Amino acid sequence: MEDLRFEHSVSARAGGSRTSAIVGVVASGNLEVLVERVLPDTECAIDIKTAAIGFGEVWTAVIGDFVERHSPGGLRFSINDGGARPDTVSLRLAQAVRLIAENGQ
Amino acid sequence: MTGWQNNRAARDARIAAGAGFARGKLVEAQDATHLLEAVIRPGDRVCLEGDNQKQADLLSRALLAVDLAKVSDLHMVQSGVVLPEHLDLFDRGVAKRLDYAYSGPQSARIARMLFGGKIELGAVHTYLELFARYFIDLTPHVALIAAVSADREGNLYTGPNTEDTPTVVEATAFKDGVVIAQVNEIVDAVPRVDIPADRVHFIVKSDKPFFVEPLFTRDPAAITEGQILTAMLAIKGIYAPYAVQRLNHGIGFSTAAIELLLPTFGERLGLKGQIATHFALNPHPALIPAIESGWVRQIHSFGSEVGMDDYIRARSDVYFTGPDGSLRSNRAFCQTAGLYACDMFIGSTLQIDLQGNSSTVTASRIAGFGGAPNMGADARGRRHPSEPWLKAGAEADPDGSALMRRGRKLVVQIGETFGDKNVPLFVEKLDAIELAEKLNLDLAPIMIYGDDVTHIVTEEGVANLLLCRTAQEREQAIRGVAGYTDVGRRRDHGMVARLRERGVIRRPEDLGINPLDADRSMLAARSIKDLVRWSGGLYSPPSKFRNW
Prior knowledge:
The structure holds two protein chains of two kinds.
Chain A: E1 2-9, E2 20-24, E3 31-37, E4 43-50, H1 56-70, E5 75-81, H2 86-101
Parallel strand pairs in A: 4-5
Antiparallel strand pairs in A: 1-4, 2-3, 3-5
Helix pairs in contact in A: 1-2
Chain B: H1 6-19, E1 22-23, E2 26-27, H2 32-39, E3 45-48, E4 54-55, H3 57-64, E5 74-80, H4 84-92, E6 95-102, H5 107-115, E7 120-124, H6 127-134, E8 142-150, E9 156-157, H7 165-173, E10 178-186, E11 202-205, E12 211-212, H8 225-242, E13 246-249, H9 253-268, E14 278-280, H10 288-292, E15 298-300, H11 309-314, H12 331-340, E16 344-347, E17 351-352, E18 358-359, H13 372-375, H14 387-396, E19 410-414, H15 431-439, E20 455-458, E21 461-464, H16 471-479, H17 486-489, H18 493-501, E22 505-506, H19 528-534
Parallel strand pairs in B: 2-11, 3-5, 3-8, 5-6, 6-7, 8-10, 10-11, 13-14, 13-16, 14-15, 16-19, 19-20
Antiparallel strand pairs in B: 1-2, 4-12, 8-9, 17-18, 20-21, 21-22
């Protein structure tokens, strides 16, 4: 296992009113993403527990693109990764930010 | 002695030699090898019917067993090198030279044999190209073909998998060649005449039905969310804006995902009747939900698909069928249809380079071309207009005169940035080039040339290469959808951002695609069993796809 943490300053607060959401599953080649609206509007944090060791550089690229494209201000992401491919990680993060942006509890 | 009918005399002599093993045209299976030894001469061009699906397997084994003193050094001219026996012929010395089109299941062994010098390679062709050469410089002396049944005169019924047979027989029988058919049964009257008796010289009854592989069945249970996202990008980013009605789908999970999204995602977008109405396509089981939902008006097929017979028979408004009710396929005509009458080809590949050239050849596998290059190429002889063709032509040449400007076929490569076993789809240099250098080939085996490709779709977005004005823009458009592969990570971020502003690259968010829709619940069928249900029980999947 490897633990990674990324913190980014973000220009805008993520939309919607939900306080948390969860997408994906913990399985080989897949990942689970828990997202919580717990940070100040201009901050974003991503904590990763991954089964695949030595992919920090790819994670940096994936997280960097995600933050730039989706501006997830105020959100903390906790990722449980079963060795997913980077495209799967991107999709799950996009789904998480979309789900918490939907109206609801 | 010179004359003008030497070939006819030679053909008659071959038939007379073979007649010793026949009663009328009928030959017992155990005499098949003797028949071939009598009819075939050393160095002959022989077409051993190996199609994409149907295989003349009994005749393959019979040919493999010939006495090398009588038959050797044959020049095999066949579209598919599929069975192990097809290559055993070269190992044994029965055959020496090979011209072919497709070798999917034997791709690793054929590569080894080419490197080892066991096979003298003429060329790897596309289907239409090899068929064309049957009529010019690769006309078979002997054709060994497969059919479902024959009557005693030799009329043949090929059943739903007619495939290449009419083309092979046409070239052989009308140019003084000998046609030998293996059939599953001899009947009093064939259900329909696919090949008339006067083109068939000998019939061998096989002890078991010829081999057919279900090549076009994709289990919906194996479709991933990434493939669903990619399929949604294709539908909303290409099918919809170009209003593509006439098209061909390659084999693969990405196109199967598109087929299964038409009745759900496509319906929601209001696209029914606007897109995907007319196909050049094998009877893909994954298309059943779209057909049942009224999306598809007509399909012409290269071959059939195992398990689809009853469904096709019951849906004759959609498929081409004979007076007996079963499918009539024809590879040569369907390839022509795909080349000239379709506005789009969409399919997967194994490698794409920075110019958009693609190849299914890897360092150790030579799968051949099959039909994709015919589908995935602009038809320079095309003259009829259509909305997608004209729109694509205008995008490529916005300043040209509308009356003089050629249209363009949409040639779309679709796939995930990382394929099977996390192998990247995008590469700086194709393995095909390395192979050509090693084998000393005149041409690298390119499946689809970059200048024919109009769009590349991955889960990261759609790249529209028609809108690129320079080689550099083209390269960055490709890098810009190459995800986190090495090719993708070496992109020029500023240039990719500008291409996105111009709509050359479109991301899921640019197309209004909700990532939460990339979910398996969006598939109209999520299992083979669902497909059976959609078909009203008419689809009968082969046992390897059953798990109930």
